[in-house]
């Protein structure tokens, strides 16, 4: 009589506990705030204190500063993607969706994180590249919808938009970062009004793409 062979049970990888996920989110939020306020060299111990967790919890989630910086940048890019998706879903006006997205992207303080992307860690890390691609796709979708509606001038590209958002949401030299916040949305709206079609002038050069920006680094 042949004995049936028992099928080995498949063990599932344990899911992170809810409190562990909350701690990770608190660390990323605290790090983003402090990177914007103080720059990428803020001590990790200070980030732990703001997040309300122990130092060991920070290092258990992020073995080094590069890992934490990368997670912060990816989270900002993903929040920007979510803002674009909401703008497209909730605004029936194509240019209104673009306006909503631009103001939301500025609130994420992408400009403050740009130097960190350029100097702190591997720009070609797969997580960062995937997050960047998602962000570029949603920006193109928002802009293309406005162009197809005849509301956005056709001679601007994704790179043009990102340069303007980064520059206009960055405080002038010598100005405290947070004190300039109240002017950001005013100046962004001036810029957005200049994007409306029909255009009142001819722009020099050609529309700037994200590839143009990468080659300029």
Instruction: Give the overall shape.
Output: elongated
Share of helical residues: 55-70%
Order of helices and strands: HHHHHHHHHH
Which stretches are low in confidence, meaning pLDDT under 50 for 5 or more residues running? none
Describe it for me?
This is TetR family transcriptional regulator. Pfam families: TetR_C_43 (PF21597), TetR_N (PF00440). GO terms for molecular function: DNA-binding transcription factor activity; transcription cis-regulatory region binding. The protein has 2 domains: 46 residues, Homeodomain-like (Arc Repressor Mutant, subunit A), CATH 1.10.10; 133 residues, Tetracycline Repressor, domain 2 (Orthogonal Bundle), CATH 1.10.357. With 217 residues, it is mainly α. It is elongated and about 55 Å long. α4 packs antiparallel against α5 and α4 packs antiparallel against α6. The chain contains 10 helices and no strands. The mean pLDDT is 82. The longest helix has 26 residues.
């Amino acid at each position: 009589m042949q004995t049936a062979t028992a099928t080995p049970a498949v063990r599932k990888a344990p899911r992170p506990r809810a409190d562990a996920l909350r701690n990770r989110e608190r660390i990323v939020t605290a790090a983003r705030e402090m990177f914007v306020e103080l720059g990428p060299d803020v001590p990790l111990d200070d980030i732990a204190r703001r997040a309300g967790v122990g130092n060991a919890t920070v290092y258990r989630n992020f073995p080094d500063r590069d890992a934490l910086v990368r997670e912060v940048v990816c989270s900002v890019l993903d929040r920007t993607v979510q803002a674009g998706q909401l703008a497209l879903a909730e605004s029936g006006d194509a240019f209104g969706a673009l306006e909503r997205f631009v103001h939301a992207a500025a609130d994420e303080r992408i400009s403050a994180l740009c130097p960190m992307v350029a100097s702190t860690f591997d720009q070609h890390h797969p997580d960062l590249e995937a997050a960047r691609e998602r962000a570029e796709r949603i920006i193109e979708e928002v802009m293309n919808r406005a162009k197809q509606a005849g509301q956005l001038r056709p001679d601007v590209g994704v790179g043009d938009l990102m340069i303007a958002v980064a520059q206009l949401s960055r405080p002038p030299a010598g100005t405290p970062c947070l004190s300039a916040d109240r002017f950001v949305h005013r100046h962004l709206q001036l810029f957005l009004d200049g994007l409306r079609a029909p255009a009142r002038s001819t722009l020099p050069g050609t529309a700037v793409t994200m590839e143009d920006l990468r080659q300029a680094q």
